[in-house]
Amino acid sequence: VQLQASGGGLVQAGGSLRLSCAVPGSIFRLNTMGWYRQAPGKQRELVAGITQGGSADYSDSVKGRFTISRNNAKNTVYLQMNSLKPEDTAVYYCNIRPPWADYWGQGTLVTVSS
Fold it and tell me: In the prediction, which pLDDT does 75 show?
């Protein structure tokens, strides 16, 4: 199964976007979830993670601007992105943490214009 992220788009610097990822319950309930991103010419990196209990952590580059959350009733993980910067431009993916190769979806493109 591939996990499909949605909610990306084009936004101006300083703007906000909210990404969503609906996950099969059998995966969601048992795993820490993560948001990852891959910018052009760069390796995919972890942006944020959240445990089943709701404990979250963030990469230094997004700390204070992005918020990860999960709705256990809807088996959905979210990424609220505020104060977006051009360097946040990337394809964003959700996966478990650590990631499982079979779960990578196509991601959702976030483009931040200056």
Answer: 97
